[in-house]
Structures are given as C-alpha cells and as structure tokens.
Amino acid sequence: MCDGGSVDPIAMSSIELQLLLLILVANGTPIIAAAACGAWGGRPLDGGRVLADGHRLLGDSKTWRGVLLAPLASSLAAVLLGLPAVVGVVVGLAAMLGDLLSSFGKRRLGMASSSMAFGLDQIPEALLPLLAVSVQFDLAWPAMAWIVAAFILLELALSRLLYRLGIRKRPY
Q1: Which of 22, 30, 112, 160 is the most buried (most CB within 10 A)?
Q2: What CA–CA distance (Å, rounded) separates 79 from 121?
Q3: Which residue, 144, 121, 152, is CA-closest to 15?
Q4: Which residue numbers in the chain have pLDDT < 70?
Q5: Domain that holds residue 43
C-alpha cells in the first residue's frame, strides 16, 4: 500500500490511483445519472424542507438517485479495478456524505444549489472517502493530500468537459 513517506504526485502508487478513480466515479455518477435518467429518482433528499434560516436543507440537486447510484457504481468500479466491492461501496457512501455536508454548508452560507464554492465543493467529497479507507490501505496524510489535490484538478477539468458535452449544466 502506501509507504507513509513523501509522495510524488506523478508516481502515485497503484492503490492511490485506484482510490482516486473510485472517488471520481462516485462523484461523477450523480451528474451522469441526472443526464441519463431524466426525472427518475430525481426527488430531492431534503423533500424541499426549509430550515429556520430560510434556506433549503440541501437543495434540489441532492437526490435519492445520486445517493443510491454512487455507491453502486463505485462498487462496480472497485471490482473492475481488482478491489473488493465493499471498498467501492464505502468510498461511494463517504463521497456522497461529503457532498451532502458541502451542500448543507453552502445552504447555510446562503449559496444557491449547484453554485460553485471552490474547496468546499471538492475537499469533503474526496477526503471523507480517503479517511474511511485510510486504515485498510495504510494511507498517510501526504498521500491523502495528493489524492485530494489531484481530485480537485481532475474534477474541475472534467466538469468543463461534461459541460461541453451537454451533460453538466454549469462549466465548473
């Protein structure tokens, strides 16, 4: 697994690359599913609830479809990468938890659903999955930092690509 020493981002270990891919799958699945599935499963998790601050709990873009399909897709990806399916499920669930926490925070800050908040949008949904599997894969903090940084860069680039392909509604 990881040696715990300094991590060269170009020479990530196999498990680090596999975890990065699983995090990308988990976080990309809800976006692709929204485009592919239309209204199916698109019911908001928060049921439209508004808190005392006058803002939604999570917003319309956090749906049952995404929360259910992300762990499923990441478990399939884990198996294809030679990892146990349960690793994919854990990564998918933790990524969705990070995404929900980000949305909750953005609503408390008065930000609109699907608005961009650099860092807040990426760090929890990459870091929580890594923390969830860190003991199993002996991940050290430098390795997790590089994976999170790589996720941020790839997420921003892939977001623009998905926008150009008409899959994503906004180019961030």
Answers
A1: 22
A2: 27
A3: 144
A4: 1-12
A5: 13-164
